[in-house]
Amino acid sequence: MALLLRMVARQGLCSSRTQFSVLYRHAVPMGTSAKEEMNRFWEKNTQLNRPLSPHISIYRWSIPMAMSITHRGTGIALSGGISAFALAALVLPGSFPYYLDLIHSLSFGPALITASKFAVSFPVAFHTFNGIRHLSWDVGKGLKIPEVYRSGYIVITLSILTSLALTAL
Amino acid sequence: MCFRVSLCPWLVVIAMAALVRIGSVCRRSVPPLLFRSSSLVRPLAARKKDQEYPYLFTAEIHASPSCNASAGSKAASLHWTGERVLSVILLSMGPMAYFYPGPVMDCSLAAALTLHGHWGLGQVVTDYVHGDSKVKLARAGLFLLSTVTFAGLCYFNYHDVGICKAVALLWSK
Q1: Which of residues 113-132 of A touch B (CB under 8 A)?
Q2: CB neighbours (10 Å) of residue A2?
Q3: Is the CB of residue A158 less than 8 Å away from at least one CB of chain B?
């Protein structure tokens, strides 16, 4: 620190690089990666049987928080649906139109068909629009809190409208 | 890579006072880097470490790879970029599949959807699964799932109506 002060006084608060190199003069590499440190953290704490601090049970829910977990939830659900579909394609003997006719012959009411169409299109729409919101964050746009809330409301509105439109198709 | 920066606690207080003095003397605001460097100097937070090292306390920081001589692998960074690129590609496939359905669309959609799902679920595994053996098991299971999914979708595209047609049929009911 004394070195730093002397450098500062001498150079009159210019050239940030010299200050940076002074700080690193006493640096010692530790030789562990962030991943290793994380593993150590979890190993130590599970071994000591430490309880996890309450977090989602006590923290106040916010719109961005809810949208984030919904993005994850819809992603998992859609992925699971696609995997189930693919598995069924491999395992089941008949063809797709056959099974479609089978379901159609069971004559579900139009309400159920509309409801299931909405149940499929809403996750797709929400995940897509929120995905675009994530991509805009990745390029650094819209990260201020009011912008986050505004884009969030836009995504919710667009998702509902799009899934209604898709259901009506 | 992590670095340990050793600083003397005694000079911390002097440094803080001196910074204010220098700032007032030069009659312009102290450049931001000085304040950033002072954030490495945390007298209160490091009190506990003082007991272990009575004459100096250490701050551990993760430096970015550009600061060390031996830069780490770019795999993670490339993976991140690849995820975003794939997301954009998949986004464009929506309208493309609507306007140009067909076997080429079916196959590219199968590949893009499976990979996007695989990488997405990979992030979920990274977030919630801890411990070397559990992570390995989860990743193996995920790989198996993605392989089966892709195989199933390819089979469907080849032997059955194909993804685009299937969605069209499903929605016509």
Answers
A1: 113, 117, 128, 131-132
A2: 12
A3: no
- Whether the model pTM is above 0.80: no
Whether B114 has a pLDDT exceeding 60, the answer reads: yes
| Interfacial A residues in 51-110 facing B (CB < 8 Å) | 72, 75-76, 78-79, 82-83, 85-90, 95-97, 100, 103-104
On chain A, the residues whose CB falls within 8 A of the CB of B163 are none
A117 within some domain: yes
Name residue, tokens 């003997």. Answer: A93
Mean pLDDT across the stretch A132-154?
96
- Compute the distance between CA of residue A157 and CA of residue A152 in angstroms, rounded to an integer: 9
Q: Which domain holds residue A120?
A: 61-168
In a domain, A42, yes or no: no
- A55 occurs within a structural domain: no
Listed in sequence order, the residues at least 6 apart from A136 whose beta carbon sits closer than 8 Å to its beta carbon are A142, A151
A142 occurs within a structural domain: yes
Q: Judge contact between B103 and B116, C-beta under 8 A.
A: no
Q: Does B50 touch chain A (CB under 8 A)?
A: no
Place of tokens 């579900």: A108
